């Protein structure tokens, strides 16, 4: 056989339309929000700073993360079971792990940026210069691509005795279940190597926010503390949701594997998190809000000018 069969999110036909509607709305919000952030950051020179470079990269990665899985998942909900070629399956596996882990690394670099801005404001530009930011992003891409290559090759070398994937996309735990042989060695590699790639950024983020909170507690003004705590709590909420779902998926014993639960958990970090990131990290930001407001006002002015011109022309011919 030259292809896998993806069972999709639900085999119950009555669940497909509500799930399709949910995926369509979530995907549209994700694309619209993240593309808007990217457009604003690219077109506004004053936003070409390390923090906004990171936000722009996060938006692009979130679009890629959702686009790797969601379109095919929606096809599955419309038409039932869908087929995917071996090469397409392993390409999807590679891209999903690459952009998914890049999302994690970007969140860690953003935590470093916030730490430098709040805890070391006098040394901010020496810690987070534009060059440092670009170097960290480039290094992160190299690491996640090597990680994804290892996972993909390790999966590609399996001896498979089944072709039906109990998932809505090609992911490693679901494909390991199709192996004819014992996969303890592969699972051990996933646990050890994945622990470094996933737990490293997570612990770094938590450590950074602990230091940030400690610094904020020393602030004299209660309004400053309240504003910073509000921002930190929203950031940490997204981080906890993102990492808890990943830990559940990739670091639990194989005896606890459940296709139904895995599909639900996968939706959290492949659909919901990319949709929430622009809202939490960007659209609550004052500069981004001002830029969005400026774009809206500019559009309204242009529309008003067109209306005035059109009414003027109609007056001439009346």
From TrEMBL:
One of its GO terms (cellular component) is plasma membrane. It is a multi-pass membrane protein. GO terms for molecular function: G protein-coupled receptor activity; odorant binding; olfactory receptor activity. The chain crosses the membrane at residues 20-42, 51-70, 90-112, 133-165, 185-212, 233-251, 263-283. The keyword Nucleus does not apply. It is found in: Cell membrane. Its main location: membrane. It holds the Pfam family 7tm_4. PANTHER family: OLFACTORY RECEPTOR. Belongs to the G-protein coupled receptor 1 family. This is Olfactory receptor. It comes from Xenopus laevis (African clawed frog). The gene is LOC108698932.
């Amino acid at each position: 056989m030259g292809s896998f069969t993806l069972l999709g999110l639900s085999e119950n036909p009555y669940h497909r339309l509500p799930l399709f509607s949910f995926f369509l709305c979530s995907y549209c919000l994700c694309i619209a929000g993240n593309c808007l952030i990217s457009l604003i950051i690219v077109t506004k020179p004053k936003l070409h700073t390390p923090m906004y470079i990171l936000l722009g990269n996060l938006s692009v990665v979130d679009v890629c993360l959702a686009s790797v899985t969601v379109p095919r998942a929606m096809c599955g909900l419309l038409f039932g079971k869908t087929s995917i070629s071996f090469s397409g399956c392993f390409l999807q596996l590679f891209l999903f792990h690459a952009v998914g882990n890049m999302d994690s690394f970007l969140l860690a670099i953003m935590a470093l940026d916030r730490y430098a801005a709040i805890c070391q404001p006098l040394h901010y530009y020496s810690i987070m210069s534009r060059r440092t930011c670009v170097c960290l992003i480039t290094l992160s891409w190299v690491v996640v691509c090597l990680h994804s290559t290892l996972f993909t090759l390790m999966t590609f070398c399996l001896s498979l005795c089944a072709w039906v994937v109990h998932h809505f996309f090609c992911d490693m735990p679901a494909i390991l279940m199709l192996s004819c042989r014992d996969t303890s060695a592969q699972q051990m590699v996933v646990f050890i190597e994945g622990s470094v790639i996933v737990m490293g950024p997570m612990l770094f983020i938590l450590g950074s926010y602990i230091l940030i909170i400690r610094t904020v507690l020393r602030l004299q003004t209660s309004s400053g503390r309240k504003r910073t705590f509000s921002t930190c709590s929203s950031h940490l909420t997204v981080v906890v949701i993102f990492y808890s779902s990943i830990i559940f998926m990739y670091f639990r014993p194989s005896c606890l594997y459940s296709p139904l639960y895995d599909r639900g958990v996968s939706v959290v970090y492949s659909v919901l998190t990319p949709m929430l990131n622009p809202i939490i990290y960007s659209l609550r930001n004052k500069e981004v809000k001002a830029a969005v407001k400026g774009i809206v006002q500019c559009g309204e002015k242009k529309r008003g000018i067109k209306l005035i011109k059109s009414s003027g022309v109609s007056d001439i011919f009346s």
